[in-house]
Prior knowledge:
It is a single chain. The protein is mostly helical. Helix content is 74%, strand content 0%. The protein is built from eight helices and no strands. Helix 1 (3-10) packs parallel to helix 5. The longest helix has 49 residues, at 189-237.
Amino acid sequence: MNKKLAAALSGGAVLVLTLSGCSDDSDNKVNDWAKKVCDQVQPQLQKIANANASIQQQTADNSKPADVQKTDSAAFQQISQAYKSLGAAVDSAGPPPVDDGETTQKEAVKELNASSKAYADLKTDVDALDTKDQAKFADGLKGIADDLNKISTSGDQALKKLQSGEVGVAMSKQKGCQKPTASTGPSGSGAADADASPEASAPEKTEKTEKDSEKKDSEKKDSEEKDSEEKDSEEKKA
């Protein structure tokens, strides 16, 4: 029920997640500006990643509408606040020291604030869904996923411009502007299974060893009794 929403959210455009490259062509002023922004960006990117992970966790077909609503509402609120903080970070850093830097900065801030409002609106829409009727709830969720796709695929031109050229190269070198790993999410079952395997098999192995030992003792005893009977028989014949 929540899979389309999770897919749309994970495909969303977020500031500096697409950056790559390790060129050292940027001058110190641009690098200083990038560091000032990225130091404030990382906590917000982490919030967005965590919100995405929480929605991913509520994608099971048997998830209750009320649980999905509560999770999605909290996630959208968290993402909205993160985008607002991202806008404030770019704004407080001032214009990047490049050609047309002031215009680029203002447009980027405008888009980040617009994204913040868009996610706040999604939260309102989720809160208004009818959780008592699962079919209606699923339809409503589909509509929200469609709106989320529109947010993800439009209105990021200024952000792309901010991430290009000297500024983009400088930001790509900052650890704070790299894509974070969600701190919330289902734990890897593979690792858990691997850890549990030796412990789970140990009792079975011990039990098997004991049974094999008992079997050998029984076979040995039978063999000794047989040899004893044959010996007695030979003595009687003699």
